[in-house]
Amino acid sequence: MPTKARWVNGILTFYDSTTHEQLGPQAPLVYCDDFVGAGNVVIPAAGAAESGMDWAKKIVGAGPPTVAGVADAANGIIECALTVDNQKQDAGLYHGDQRGFSLEQGLIFETRLKINVLPTLLAEAVFGLIGNWADGPDAITYSAFFTADGSGEIFCEVNDNATDASATSGVTATAAQTKIYRIDFTSVTDVRFYIDGVHVATGTTFAYAATGANAILQPYLGLYKSTGAGLGKIQVDYVRMWQKRS
Protein backbone atom coordinates (compact mmCIF):
# COMPACT_ATOMS: atom_id res chain seq x y z
CA MET A 1 0.00 0.00 0.00
CA PRO A 2 1.41 3.45 -0.90
CA THR A 3 -0.18 5.14 2.14
CA LYS A 4 1.34 4.31 5.50
CA ALA A 5 0.69 5.52 9.05
CA ARG A 6 3.61 6.76 11.08
CA TRP A 7 4.28 8.69 14.26
CA VAL A 8 6.45 11.84 14.13
CA ASN A 9 7.07 13.79 17.34
CA GLY A 10 4.04 12.14 18.91
CA ILE A 11 1.76 13.09 16.01
CA LEU A 12 0.11 10.43 13.85
CA THR A 13 0.53 11.19 10.15
CA PHE A 14 -0.32 9.27 7.00
CA TYR A 15 2.36 9.33 4.31
CA ASP A 16 1.73 8.60 0.63
CA SER A 17 4.94 7.09 -0.72
CA THR A 18 3.72 7.59 -4.30
CA THR A 19 3.06 11.34 -4.14
CA HIS A 20 5.30 12.01 -1.08
CA GLU A 21 2.47 13.92 0.63
CA GLN A 22 1.85 13.92 4.36
CA LEU A 23 -1.89 13.25 4.68
CA GLY A 24 -4.26 13.93 7.55
CA PRO A 25 -1.85 14.75 10.37
CA GLN A 26 -3.56 14.17 13.72
CA ALA A 27 -2.11 17.30 15.31
CA PRO A 28 -3.76 19.77 17.69
CA LEU A 29 -3.25 22.55 15.14
CA VAL A 30 -3.58 21.72 11.44
CA TYR A 31 -3.65 24.29 8.63
CA CYS A 32 -4.26 23.36 5.00
CA ASP A 33 -5.07 25.44 1.95
CA ASP A 34 -5.62 23.81 -1.45
CA PHE A 35 -6.60 27.14 -3.04
CA VAL A 36 -9.87 25.74 -4.40
CA GLY A 37 -12.83 28.04 -4.98
CA ALA A 38 -13.80 31.48 -6.24
CA GLY A 39 -12.31 33.25 -3.23
CA ASN A 40 -8.82 32.25 -4.31
CA VAL A 41 -8.92 33.82 -7.79
CA VAL A 42 -8.24 37.37 -6.60
CA ILE A 43 -5.77 37.62 -3.72
CA PRO A 44 -6.12 40.88 -1.72
CA ALA A 45 -3.18 43.25 -1.53
CA ALA A 46 -1.16 43.47 1.67
CA GLY A 47 -2.90 45.83 4.06
CA ALA A 48 -6.26 45.60 2.29
CA ALA A 49 -9.31 44.81 4.40
CA GLU A 50 -10.66 41.44 3.32
CA SER A 51 -12.96 39.35 5.49
CA GLY A 52 -12.17 35.67 5.81
CA MET A 53 -9.05 35.64 3.61
CA ASP A 54 -5.91 34.07 5.07
CA TRP A 55 -3.60 35.21 2.30
CA ALA A 56 -2.38 38.53 0.98
CA LYS A 57 -0.15 39.40 -1.94
CA LYS A 58 2.97 41.51 -1.58
CA ILE A 59 3.54 43.34 -4.86
CA VAL A 60 6.66 45.46 -5.35
CA GLY A 61 7.31 46.96 -8.77
CA ALA A 62 5.35 48.95 -11.32
CA GLY A 63 5.44 46.15 -13.93
CA PRO A 64 3.62 44.90 -12.01
CA PRO A 65 4.39 41.33 -10.96
CA THR A 66 1.31 39.23 -10.23
CA VAL A 67 -0.07 36.88 -7.57
CA ALA A 68 -3.40 35.31 -8.46
CA GLY A 69 -5.39 32.14 -8.80
CA VAL A 70 -5.19 30.23 -12.08
CA ALA A 71 -8.63 29.95 -13.64
CA ASP A 72 -10.13 26.44 -13.71
CA ALA A 73 -6.89 24.79 -12.57
CA ALA A 74 -7.31 21.24 -11.30
CA ASN A 75 -6.74 21.02 -7.52
CA GLY A 76 -6.50 24.82 -7.21
CA ILE A 77 -3.35 26.76 -8.14
CA ILE A 78 -1.94 30.14 -7.11
CA GLU A 79 0.60 31.58 -9.53
CA CYS A 80 3.28 34.14 -8.63
CA ALA A 81 5.10 35.76 -11.55
CA LEU A 82 7.69 38.47 -12.21
CA THR A 83 7.73 40.60 -15.35
CA VAL A 84 10.57 41.50 -17.68
CA ASP A 85 10.59 45.14 -16.52
CA ASN A 86 14.01 46.34 -15.36
CA GLN A 87 13.14 47.10 -11.74
CA LYS A 88 13.00 45.71 -8.23
CA GLN A 89 10.08 43.29 -7.95
CA ASP A 90 8.47 41.06 -5.34
CA ALA A 91 5.57 38.74 -6.12
CA GLY A 92 4.84 37.21 -2.73
CA LEU A 93 2.00 35.17 -1.26
CA TYR A 94 1.96 35.40 2.54
CA HIS A 95 -0.23 35.96 5.60
CA GLY A 96 0.17 39.73 5.57
CA ASP A 97 2.56 39.68 8.54
CA GLN A 98 0.01 37.91 10.72
CA ARG A 99 2.41 35.34 12.18
CA GLY A 100 0.76 32.37 13.86
CA PHE A 101 2.91 29.25 13.55
CA SER A 102 5.39 28.32 16.27
CA LEU A 103 8.64 26.58 15.45
CA GLU A 104 9.02 25.73 19.15
CA GLN A 105 5.85 23.62 18.97
CA GLY A 106 7.25 21.20 16.39
CA LEU A 107 5.90 22.93 13.31
CA ILE A 108 6.04 21.12 9.98
CA PHE A 109 5.63 23.12 6.76
CA GLU A 110 4.85 21.41 3.45
CA THR A 111 4.04 22.75 0.00
CA ARG A 112 3.57 21.25 -3.43
CA LEU A 113 4.68 23.58 -6.20
CA LYS A 114 6.26 23.93 -9.61
CA ILE A 115 8.89 26.47 -10.63
CA ASN A 116 7.42 26.58 -14.09
CA VAL A 117 9.60 29.48 -15.28
CA LEU A 118 13.06 29.15 -13.76
CA PRO A 119 14.31 32.51 -12.41
CA THR A 120 16.68 34.41 -14.69
CA LEU A 121 19.37 37.03 -14.04
CA LEU A 122 19.01 38.25 -10.41
CA ALA A 123 15.58 36.74 -9.79
CA GLU A 124 15.05 33.93 -7.28
CA ALA A 125 12.17 31.80 -6.05
CA VAL A 126 11.64 31.59 -2.28
CA PHE A 127 9.20 29.38 -0.38
CA GLY A 128 8.94 28.50 3.28
CA LEU A 129 8.51 30.52 6.48
CA ILE A 130 9.43 34.08 7.43
CA GLY A 131 9.01 36.61 10.22
CA ASN A 132 7.74 40.01 9.11
CA TRP A 133 8.17 40.81 5.43
CA ALA A 134 11.25 42.87 4.49
CA ASP A 135 12.68 44.19 1.24
CA GLY A 136 14.34 41.05 -0.09
CA PRO A 137 14.64 37.56 1.41
CA ASP A 138 18.13 38.23 2.76
CA ALA A 139 16.79 41.22 4.71
CA ILE A 140 14.19 39.12 6.55
CA THR A 141 15.44 38.70 10.10
CA TYR A 142 13.90 35.31 10.94
CA SER A 143 13.28 32.67 8.30
CA ALA A 144 13.56 29.11 7.07
CA PHE A 145 12.98 28.47 3.39
CA PHE A 146 13.96 26.90 0.09
CA THR A 147 15.38 29.07 -2.69
CA ALA A 148 16.05 28.47 -6.38
CA ASP A 149 17.80 30.46 -9.08
CA GLY A 150 18.03 30.06 -12.85
CA SER A 151 19.96 26.81 -12.66
CA GLY A 152 17.05 25.16 -10.87
CA GLU A 153 19.36 24.17 -8.02
CA ILE A 154 17.41 24.17 -4.74
CA PHE A 155 19.07 25.63 -1.64
CA CYS A 156 18.00 25.35 2.01
CA GLU A 157 18.38 28.26 4.40
CA VAL A 158 17.72 29.00 8.09
CA ASN A 159 18.26 32.42 9.68
CA ASP A 160 17.58 33.01 13.41
CA ASN A 161 19.20 36.49 13.51
CA ALA A 162 22.33 34.98 15.03
CA THR A 163 23.33 32.38 12.47
CA ASP A 164 22.43 32.39 8.77
CA ALA A 165 23.01 28.88 7.45
CA SER A 166 22.62 27.95 3.79
CA ALA A 167 23.41 24.76 1.87
CA THR A 168 22.53 23.17 -1.42
CA SER A 169 19.91 20.43 -1.34
CA GLY A 170 21.73 18.59 -4.11
CA VAL A 171 18.46 18.63 -6.06
CA THR A 172 17.95 20.49 -9.34
CA ALA A 173 14.36 21.18 -10.38
CA THR A 174 13.23 21.65 -13.96
CA ALA A 175 10.36 23.78 -15.19
CA ALA A 176 8.36 20.62 -15.91
CA GLN A 177 8.56 19.19 -12.38
CA THR A 178 6.11 19.59 -9.54
CA LYS A 179 7.76 18.68 -6.23
CA ILE A 180 6.80 18.50 -2.58
CA TYR A 181 8.96 20.57 -0.25
CA ARG A 182 8.87 20.07 3.52
CA ILE A 183 10.61 21.79 6.45
CA ASP A 184 10.49 19.89 9.74
CA PHE A 185 11.00 21.66 13.09
CA THR A 186 10.47 18.56 15.23
CA SER A 187 13.83 19.54 16.72
CA VAL A 188 14.79 23.21 16.45
CA THR A 189 18.41 22.22 16.98
CA ASP A 190 18.24 20.01 13.88
CA VAL A 191 15.82 21.57 11.37
CA ARG A 192 15.37 19.21 8.43
CA PHE A 193 14.54 19.86 4.78
CA TYR A 194 12.87 17.28 2.52
CA ILE A 195 12.18 17.20 -1.21
CA ASP A 196 9.79 14.52 -2.45
CA GLY A 197 10.20 12.70 0.85
CA VAL A 198 14.00 12.63 0.79
CA HIS A 199 16.01 14.33 3.54
CA VAL A 200 18.33 16.80 1.76
CA ALA A 201 21.31 18.97 2.76
CA THR A 202 22.20 16.27 5.27
CA GLY A 203 25.79 17.51 5.54
CA THR A 204 24.63 20.71 7.27
CA THR A 205 23.06 20.99 10.72
CA PHE A 206 20.46 23.74 10.70
CA ALA A 207 19.64 25.11 14.14
CA TYR A 208 17.05 27.75 14.97
CA ALA A 209 17.96 29.33 18.30
CA ALA A 210 15.51 32.26 18.41
CA THR A 211 12.62 31.74 20.82
CA GLY A 212 9.30 33.25 21.85
CA ALA A 213 7.83 35.78 19.41
CA ASN A 214 10.89 35.41 17.18
CA ALA A 215 10.04 31.74 16.63
CA ILE A 216 6.49 32.51 15.49
CA LEU A 217 6.53 32.78 11.69
CA GLN A 218 4.22 32.91 8.66
CA PRO A 219 4.28 31.17 5.27
CA TYR A 220 5.77 32.98 2.30
CA LEU A 221 5.93 31.76 -1.30
CA GLY A 222 7.00 33.89 -4.23
CA LEU A 223 9.74 35.45 -6.32
CA TYR A 224 12.05 38.41 -5.82
CA LYS A 225 14.62 40.39 -7.77
CA SER A 226 16.57 43.41 -6.57
CA THR A 227 16.87 44.87 -10.07
CA GLY A 228 17.14 43.87 -13.74
CA ALA A 229 14.93 42.25 -16.34
CA GLY A 230 14.87 38.79 -14.79
CA LEU A 231 11.79 36.60 -15.02
CA GLY A 232 10.39 33.79 -12.93
CA LYS A 233 7.13 32.02 -12.15
CA ILE A 234 5.93 29.50 -9.57
CA GLN A 235 2.62 27.67 -9.27
CA VAL A 236 1.57 26.65 -5.74
CA ASP A 237 -0.79 23.68 -5.41
CA TYR A 238 -1.15 23.56 -1.64
CA VAL A 239 0.29 24.67 1.69
CA ARG A 240 0.00 22.45 4.79
CA MET A 241 1.29 23.14 8.29
CA TRP A 242 0.76 21.37 11.58
CA GLN A 243 2.12 21.59 15.10
CA LYS A 244 1.45 20.91 18.76
CA ARG A 245 -0.74 23.32 20.72
CA SER A 246 1.97 24.06 23.26
Which descriptors apply to this entry?
single chain, 246 residues, mainly beta, Jelly Rolls, 8-stranded antiparallel sheet
Short characterization:
By secondary structure, the protein is mostly beta strands. The chain has one domain (29-243): Jelly Rolls, CATH 2.60.120.200.
Write the layout of secondary structure elements.
Elements (H helix, E strand, L loop, with lengths): L2 E6 L2 E6 L5 E2 L5 E5 L22 E5 L5 E4 L8 E4 L7 E6 L6 E2 L5 E10 L6 E7 L11 E7 L4 E8 L3 E9 L5 E7 L7 E4 L2 E3 L15 E10 L7 E11 L3
Antiparallel strand pairs: 1-2, 2-3, 4-19, 5-8, 6-7, 7-19, 8-18, 9-18, 10-15, 10-19, 11-12, 11-18, 12-13, 13-14, 15-16, 16-17
Folded structure, characterized:
0% of the residues lie in helices and 47% in strands.
Distance between the termini: 34 Å
CATH fold-level topology: Jelly Rolls
Summed over residues and divided by their number, the pLDDT gives a mean of 93
Structural class: mainly beta
CATH class: Mainly Beta
- Count of structural domains: 1
Strand content: over 45%
